[in-house]
Amino acid sequence: MLSIIADFEKLKPISRQMSTSFVSELEMRIPPDCWNRFSIVDILESLAARTKTLAELIIELKGLLEEYQTLTSQRYSDIERMIDDGRIESWLRFTQYSVIQEEFLKAGMSNVDDNKIILDAHDLCINSPCDLSFITGDYNDIKAHERTIVNLTEIKEVIYLADINNNQYKGYF
């Protein structure tokens, strides 16, 4: 987000009037592989509707960034406190599961960070026998690959968070 703001600040003139085409021009500066691209585009469109110039948009974006950094820091501190209090337990995986990682990649599961989390859950199932359902809000990188995940790991099923909200799993939890 910081680099995007820096890119915006380089645009001239800074007093340029906001318009739909200008917002589209700004959106094109966001890398297509940016994991939160859609959120940034939504924010841009919302802010552009309320601001008249690029300078005002940059001020608004910097304010949002500061707010985001404050919330992130606060959440991190909250989680640290919950770990210290014993309200959150963590699992440390020592096995790499290279074969499974390779199979994930072959199956099109290219988000390595998500794959590590899935392998952590798999490792937990192996070392603490449990009937684990993996809940995710990420449809494209995880839920769409449920068959691969269930076939290669000890995870029983992958549940999409939106399905819980839509009562598909009513009485399940």
Task: State the main characteristics.
2 domains; two-stranded parallel ribbon
Describe what is shown at a glance.
The protein has 173 residues and is mainly alpha-helical. It is built from eight helices and two strands; from the N terminus they run ααααααβαβα. The chain has helices at 2-10, 20-27, 37-50, 54-84, 98-106, 112-127, 146-152, 161-165; strands at residues 133-136, 157-160.
Overview of the structural elements:
The chain is mainly α and 173 residues long. The protein folds into two domains: 2-84; 98-165, no CATH class. Helix content is 57%, strand content 5%. The chain contains eight helices and two strands; from the N terminus they run H-H-H-H-H-H-E-H-E-H. The protein has helices at 2-10, 20-27, 37-50, 54-84, 98-106, 112-127, 146-152, 161-165; strands spanning 133-136, 157-160. Strands 1-2 form a two-stranded parallel sheet. Helix 1 (2-10) runs antiparallel to helix 4 (54-84). The longest helix is centred in the middle third of the chain and has 31 residues, at 54-84. The two termini are 37 Å apart. The mean pLDDT is 80.
